[in-house]
Amino acid sequence: MEGRAYELFSKADRNVFIKVIPGHFATKHSHVNYCVDMTAVKSQLFDAKAAAKLLAARFAGTPVDTIISLDRMKMVGSFMAEELAHTQMSKNQNIAVITPEITNDKLLLRDNFLSYVKYKHVLLLTDSATTGKDVNSVVEGIRFYGGTPVGAAMVFGGKFDCSVQTVKLFGIDDIPDYSSYAPVDCPLCRSGVKVDAVVNSYGYSKFV
Questions:
Q1: What string of DSSP letters covers 142-175?
Q2: Which value, to the nearest 10 degrees, does the dihedral of the CA atoms of residues 101, 107, 113, 114 take?
Q3: Could you give the 3-state DSSP secondary structure of residue 85?
């Protein structure tokens, strides 16, 4: 499977890249014909910092008090906070980066995290959002807890409606034949194509 992989570089900074593997993959909400591997962005210092700089630049004029970081994106979130802290809107601000729980696809804030969201301007950071289901659920959760969602940033994203500004480093347009299907409607399954791997925010696990 890895032999089919290729690297996709950001047009803005070639230090930011993702690996793309064609095949048949199962995610939490859908079946897709590409696995998007963001391990380098999430795990390596220089890669994470370069990605954070690109994302933060798109929110330079936005007040941000807190970044909610999901899906192992906390290193990128920390670098984003550092970048945003030097912008005019957030000058020298001690921006919080938190990773709250997601339970039954809903944002759950324990009492110790409430003060970082209530009455605060909150930016959501995640690795991937193709259907928009999780992003919209968290944005709704931020409002439920009394915060003001100011945007959603992601490494890879699809086309979906969202009530806040969304920023992505890579999109489905960068993979022209990228397709996502509801599991019950997956044409690959109907054609008898086996699932190569299960994919989540930690990576992929191949079927033998």
A1: HHHTT-EEEEEEEEEE-----SS-EEEEEEGGGS
A2: -160
A3: coil
Residue-wise pLDDT tens digits, 47-106: 999 999 999 999 998 999 999 999 999 999 999 999 999 885 656 689 999 999 999 889
The two structure tokens encoding residue 69: 């970081």
Residue 41 three-state SS = helix
Give backbone dihedrals phi and psi of 99, rounded to 5 degrees, phi first: -125, 85
8 A C-beta contact, residue 93 and residue 81: no
Strand, coil or helix: 75: helix
Contact (CB, 8 A) for 152 and 124:
yes
pTM above the 0.70 mark? yes
Cβ within 8 Å of residue 96, ≥6 positions away: 65, 66, 67, 81, 116
Q: How far apart are CA 117 and CA 172, in angstroms?
A: 31
